[in-house]
């Protein structure tokens, strides 16, 4: 009998997900959970079968066909089969609509992001245009531009596949993705109509039916305040581009099913969303929504990796028994699970806040909390997803390093999470911006106090203590850093953000663990909380600035 290794298999990704199901039982009224559960089960089944069918076919990339056989410039983009399937599926399950519907009140975002979490890996990054569609819908609502709201929202929020549109966010230019002040695209008013001229360097969702783009009105000064936000529909009803040339599709490390394009706008008609300035402020709602999608997508990656590693560990026999029964392997999986479980509770807490804010049920402190936590959740989960995907390759050994196992793709795809929607340092700086606006840590610290007041079980004593001690150390560090040079606070911004994210994640996980012990007689969330606390919460630097300057400029 030849030696054969068994491939990991996924079962229904909703029914099999203890963490999601237990969380939903705690936060949703029974009637809401009852109303959405069959939809979640369907998507869980789709996720499992999509993984199996992707293993059975050769990977396909989208293709740009620039010229017709008759020599006409057409710039047609051929999508992959998974993308063709995703569009109607996303509409029918309301992947965008559910977040805006009022049926479940303030629970709309928990509902929607549960769907996103289950759908993400199976969608092959169709969630990218969906994220932007959600962001664009949110920004248009915030703009109060009634004409555009009436024009676009019925499509962006439709559950009918024939009516549903996706929308893109066209921001990044050659000058950079982080510093949008250097935007070179110009807007000119010609015969009473705005037209855009310039080059957009990373356009994901090039197939979208609508987009928001930043551009500088002709004659406006330099800097980001002078940028304006425009709405455009890239194609005519017959499918032809409106003065847009697609120069090429990007050759990316991961997310290869997603057609990301470089384009030229050669007089594309567009409409102002608001004032002809302050475009960054107007596009900020898109950023905050897509950063939340980013964090949920990163969670989905972690969950997928752990599900595969766990299943594989039950099948793979080495040294006479399954890996799943070997203490060091158990310890490795436990470490991944604890980090994931803590991250899960932080991210879904953000979705709860978003739902409350959107439903008009949040006070000022909760609104500040949402603003503070969005970049923290994005920053921490992006990095964590890469670490867990890398560990998963290792768990599956040599085969986990082979392309057709599907595991390397998880690692390559995971690397997008810390980059998309603002790299880690952009998130850390955005957190400092939000911290200044909120007047300090108070909204975060008082939320943590309320959460920890619900943690009483002796099994969770050490966790609550670790979270409280971290809060004290962070507050002391921040006090000291805020009175010194501004550069010192900035240089420590990333570790500050990580520390706060981990501290709050532990508090939230401990609160859930308390509930699970009582309501479900389940000791596993408490075990995850203890393990997560053992990993440590903080890596604050005592006085890192001088050392950092010296080391950053190191040469022989
Ligand atoms: O990556 C991209 C495509 C991938 C899409 C993937 C979707 C996710 C998939 C999920 C699947 C499951 S598109 C590129 C993404 N690019 C970025 O994210 C940009 C990164 N850079 C930044 O975020 C920077 O911080 C900037 C551009 C916002 C900085 O611009 P400025 O002009 O230097 O910033 P200011 O002057 O500080 O901010 C201008 C205004 C201020 O408001 P006012 O004027 O009222 O004081 C800020 O408070 O904008 C406000 N503002 C915000 N408000 C800035 N950021 C925010 C924010 N996040 N929330 C609220």
Structural write-up:
With 556 residues, the protein is of the alpha+beta class. Among the domains are: 113 residues, Butyryl-CoA Dehydrogenase, subunit A, domain 2 (Beta Barrel); 109 residues, no CATH class. The chain is 55% helix and 12% strand. Strands 4-5-9-7-6 form a five-stranded mixed beta barrel. A two-stranded antiparallel ribbon has the order 1-2. Helix 4 crosses helix 7 and helix 15 packs antiparallel against helix 16. The radius of gyration is 24 Å and the shape is globular. The protein binds ligand UCC. The site of ligand UCC has 30 residues, from helix 5, helix 7 and helix 11.
Keywords:
556 residues; five-stranded mixed β-barrel; globular; 55% helix; 12% strand; alpha+beta; two-stranded antiparallel ribbon; Butyryl-CoA Dehydrogenase, subunit A, domain 2; binds ligand UCC
Q: What proportion strand?
A: 5-15%
List all distinct small molecules, including ions and cofactors, that are bound in this structure.
ligand UCC
Top CATH class of the domain at 167-279: Mainly Beta
The stretches of 5 or more residues where confidence is low (pLDDT under 50) are none
Instruction: Look up the CATH topology of the domain at 167-279.
Output: Butyryl-CoA Dehydrogenase, subunit A, domain 2
Question: What is the share of helical residues?
Answer: 40-55%
Mean pLDDT, rounded to whole units?
95
Distance between the termini: 58 Å
Please work out how many helical segments DSSP would assign.
17
Describe the biggest sheet?
5 strands, mixed, barrel
Number of strands: 11
Order of strands in the sheet with most strands: 4-5-9-7-6
What structural class do helix, strand and pairing data support?
Answer: alpha+beta
Global shape: globular
Radius of gyration using CA atoms only: 24 Å
Query: CATH architecture of the domain at 167-279, please?
Result: Beta Barrel
Provide the succession of SSEs. HHEEHHHHEEEEEEEHEEHHHHHHHHHH
């Amino acid at each position: 009998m030849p030696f054969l290794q068994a491939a990991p298999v996924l079962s229904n990704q909703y029914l099999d997900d203890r963490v999601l199901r237990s969380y939903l039982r705690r936060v949703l009224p029974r009637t809401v959970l009852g109303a959405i559960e069959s939809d979640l089960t369907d998507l869980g089944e789709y996720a499992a079968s999509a993984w199996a069918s992707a293993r059975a076919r050769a990977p396909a990339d989208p293709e740009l066909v620039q010229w017709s056989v008759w020599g006409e410039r057409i710039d047609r983009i051929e999508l992959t089969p998974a993308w063709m399937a995703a569009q109607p599926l996303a509409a029918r399950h309301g992947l965008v609509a559910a977040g805006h519907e009022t049926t479940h009140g303030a629970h709309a975002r928990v509902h929607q992001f549960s769907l996103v979490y289950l759908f993400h890996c199976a969608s092959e990054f169709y969630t990218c245009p969906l994220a932007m569609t959600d962001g664009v819908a949110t920004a248009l609502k915030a703009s109060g531009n009634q004409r555009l709201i009436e024009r676009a929202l019925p499509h962006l929020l439709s559950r009918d596949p024939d009516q549903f549109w996706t929308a893109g966010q066209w921001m990044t230019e050659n000058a950079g993705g982080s510093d949008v002040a250097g935007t070179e695209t110009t807007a000119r008013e010609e015969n009473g109509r705005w037209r855009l001229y310039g080059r957009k360097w990373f356009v994901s969702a090039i197939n979208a039916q609508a987009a928001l783009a930043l551009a500088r009105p002709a004659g406006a000064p330099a800097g980001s305040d002078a940028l304006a936000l425009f709405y455009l529909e890239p194609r005519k009803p017959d499918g032809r581009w409106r003065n847009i040339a697609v120069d090429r599709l990007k050759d990316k490390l991961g997310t290869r099913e997603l057609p990301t394009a470089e384009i030229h706008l050669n007089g594309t008609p567009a409409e102002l969303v608001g004032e002809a300035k302050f475009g960054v402020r107007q596009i900020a709602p898109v950023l905050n929504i897509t950063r939340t999608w980013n964090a949920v997508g990163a969670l989905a990656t972690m969950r997928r990796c752990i599900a595969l590693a766990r299943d594989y560990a039950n099948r793979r026999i080495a040294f006479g028994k399954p890996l799943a029964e070997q203490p060091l392997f158990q310890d490795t999986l436990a470490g991944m699970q604890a980090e994931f479980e803590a991250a899960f509770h932080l991210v879904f807490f953000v979705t709860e806040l978003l739902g409350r804010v959107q439903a008009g049920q949040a006070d000022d402190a909760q609104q500040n909390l949402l603003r503070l936590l969005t970049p923290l959740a994005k920053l921490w989960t992006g990095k964590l997803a890469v670490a867990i995907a890398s560990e998963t390759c290792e768990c599956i050994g040599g085969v986990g390093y082979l392309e057709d196992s599907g595991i390397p793709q998880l690692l390559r795809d995971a690397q997008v999470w810390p980059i998309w929607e603002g790299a880690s340092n952009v998130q850390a700086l955005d957190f400092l911006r939000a911290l200044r606006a909120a007047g300090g840590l108070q909204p975060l610290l008082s939320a943590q106090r309320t959460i920890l007041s619900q943690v009483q079980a002796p099994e969770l004593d050490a966790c609550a203590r670790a979270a409280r001690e971290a809060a004290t150390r962070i507050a002391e560090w921040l006090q000291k850093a805020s009175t010194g040079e501004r550069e010192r606070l900035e240089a420590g911004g990333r570790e500050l953000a990580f520390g706060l994210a981990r501290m709050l994640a532990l508090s939230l996980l401990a609160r859930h663990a308390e509930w699970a012990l009582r309501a479900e007689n389940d000791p596993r969330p408490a075990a995850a909380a203890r393990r997560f606390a053992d990993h440590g919460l903080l890596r604050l630097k005592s006085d890192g600035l001088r050392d950092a300057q010296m080391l950053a400029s190191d040469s022989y």
